[in-house]
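Subject: two folds for Thursday's group meeting

Dear M.,

Sorry for the delay on this. The cluster queue was jammed most of the week, so I only got both jobs back this morning. I'm pasting them in the order they finished. Each block is the input sequence followed by the predicted structure tokens. Could you check whether the formatting survives your parser before we put anything on slides? The first protein is the one we discussed after the seminar.
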Amino acid sequence: MAKILLINPNKWGRGITSIWIPSHTAVLKSFGHEVRLFDCTFFKDWSLDETSFNTANKQYQPTDYHKLITYSEKNIFEALKEEIQNFKPDLIFWSAISSHIHGEGEYVNIQYGYELIERISPRATLVTGGLQVTAQPKAAFSRFPMVNYFIAGESEFVLAELATYLGDDSKIQALPGLVWRDGSDIKVNPPQKLISDLDQIPKYDYSIFDPQVFLRPYNGTVLKAVDYELSRGCIYTCSYCVETVLQKYYGVFESSTISGALKEPKKYLRAKSGKRVHEELKYLHRELGINLIRCQDTNFLTINRTTLNELADLLDSDPVDVKLYVETRVDRISPADIHLLKRLRVDGVGTGVELSSASFRTSFLNRFASTDLLEKNIALLKTEGIKCTTYNIIGLPKESEEMILDTINLNHRLQPDNITVAFYSPYIGTQQAEIGVIEKYFDDYEYHVDGQLRTVSNSSQVDAKTLNFYKKNFNYLVRNGTENINGLKKAEGLLQ
């Protein structure tokens, strides 16, 4: 039995239950290991205030969230050092892959966690993983030289076996998915098998989180929420999305040139059983008081219907007082899908608009989506009482300011319940990131990306100051129109 310290390097200053934490905790405990979590979320000298930032730009509705949260005045490095001294972990781990894929900081966890560890230099075995390792395994050691082992791909069972084999280097070095040093050489082991049946992972252990982590602003109120996954994988191959990194790693990347979908999606898309999901929902609500399930599945309605219909039947026969927020391709939705969403207690749907130009989406993003169907189906969702949030991107390579304005005008026509706009982030291993480097929009390695808080673009076509203007004013312009845009620009020094 080993002692494992997990670190959540979250910098947003609001609760996020990164899914890799409860999934890894569950597997590690099932192997007999002891697990603790050091959560960075509420340290004043570490976290930023993403909630206030996105409330000010009208992406979020105002709430009394901050009155309900207590932030620590302790120095985070001293607090972590104290935790390590008291717990004396055998192994420390801080970054992995889950259905968050890149959202809510999962992509940058590896960098931020390393910044913490680098200052402390603990004696424990240092292990980490995630998307950056999966995309560029050999580069990981040059970026994070203190790490002992990296895990590419899904890491729950690999980490548990590694912890079991501590002290036996030959067994550790034979583990699939492992990246390790052999003297001056870097060895990249063959990929581990995908976890084909997510029921193989024991019930995800959310009890490891501090209770205030569950508090979350949602549509003008504060609820108790968790991030959750019913499935893993996506059938689509959008060129900006890190799902393509995982598809390549597991050798399932061949896609249709007509739809942008994988030719063999069943090899990559996996789900829990409806029974298992129902059990977890009951546990989350009845034992932890959770009433909002923030589903992070990349495309909810491509989850196999056996799982979704079984879950709907179980919720009908044994109701759980929770509501779901899901993400899915609304351009592909049908009236039967909406009926199913209502049976599943779905309160809100988030959908990627990305940007208004259908030809740009198809040619540059490999995203085949009908704008007409998007408009029609968002209206249908609203008619059926399901809230809709549009996701939009600004700062893509080759995206012009005129295209940003067109996207604002499209959202003005759509009038969704909520509007999210993100700075484009160049994720290593994606086609769009490679284009961005070639076109000199971005450096080779942009570790400090955050789609909500900052742009890292060097574009001369739409500069950073202009992108910040649109991030700040996107919601205002959607709701009020663009007639006064020059006045807003003058007020912020963009026009004389």
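Second protein, same layout:
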Amino acid sequence: MSDQIRVSTETLQSRAREYGKAANDIRVILNNLQRLQDTLRSEWEGAAFQGFERQFLELKPKVVNFADLMQQINTQLDKTAEAMKQNDQALSKNFGIQNS
């Protein structure tokens, strides 16, 4: 394991935003699929649809959990970037450097 950090706080914040956007995109897609599922429910009856519906309902929480994970990664990366920035500012004081 390396002791060097090779990413800037700005890059880390950018990556965090990408994860946040992915979380939002997943939620939008899931909402669209839910509307499609609701439409199909009114158009398709029988055992085949019931099986299809069951699969959808089993998969939906996993997709929600994945979106939640993407949002958690977003938060963790943001917090890490902020900690890196604060640490750099604190260390710069050892050299008499004033950060604005």
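Two things I noticed about the second structure. The longest helix spans residues 47-92. The two ends are 33 Å apart (CA to CA).

Cheers,
T.
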